[in-house]
Design goal:
four-stranded mixed β-sheet; 2 domains; Glutaredoxin
Length: 176
């Protein structure tokens, strides 16, 4: 019950956190009490420092200090913008530069590698939130998706068309 209350408070404040089930490891369960000099659970840590248990979390919430102490979860839209702009040329695909995990991604990798332009990839199979969120954000329902300087170029068909018309290299270099 106490753990559930702390989780509800953290979620209500949009605080980014992870958790450890102390019932899954008796050594950690007992050792953490000694390490922290705190006899009960839950125990909230921020940046490796013990904040306290439920009572402390409730006090911090009531005083308004909780929001300044705890890191906020990055909003999905901000996270997507950050990923899109991670490199001048970003390719969201199934797999990565070293190994495509679908035919379309394999084809676009071959095209990209033949341009000589440096690019980064993001494996959408590794992050379901990004995989679904980017479709909505970009208003483009399929993968791969290619971005240059934060702007969507398109998917495999668009990249093929640009290659055939000779426009791909100028687009990748941000000259269009």
């Amino acid at each position: 019950g106490f753990s559930k209350q702390v989780v509800e408070i953290l979620n209500k404040h949009g605080i980014s956190f992870s958790s450890f089930d102390i019932f899954s490891d008796e050594e950690v369960r007992q050792g953490l009490k000694t390490y922290s000099n705190w006899p009960t659970y839950p125990q909230l840590y921020v940046a490796g420092e013990l904040i306290g248990g439920l009572d402390i979390v409730k006090e911090l919430e009531a005083s308004g200090e909780l929001d300044s102490i705890c890191p906020k979860a990055q909003k999905l839209e901000d996270r997507l913008k950050s990923l899109i702009n991670k490199a001048p040329v970003m390719l969201f695909m199934k797999g990565n530069k070293q190994m495509a995990k679908c035919g379309f991604s394999k084809q676009i990798l071959e095209i990209m590698n033949n341009t000589g332009v440096d690019y980064e990839t993001f494996d959408i199979l590794e992050d379901e939130e990004v995989r679904q969120g980017l479709k909505t954000f970009s208003n483009w329902p399929t993968y791969p998706q290619l971005y240059v300087k934060g702007e969507l170029v398109g998917g495999l068909d668009i990249v093929k068309e640009l290659k055939e018309s000779g426009e791909l290299l100028p687009v990748l270099k941000g000259e269009n």
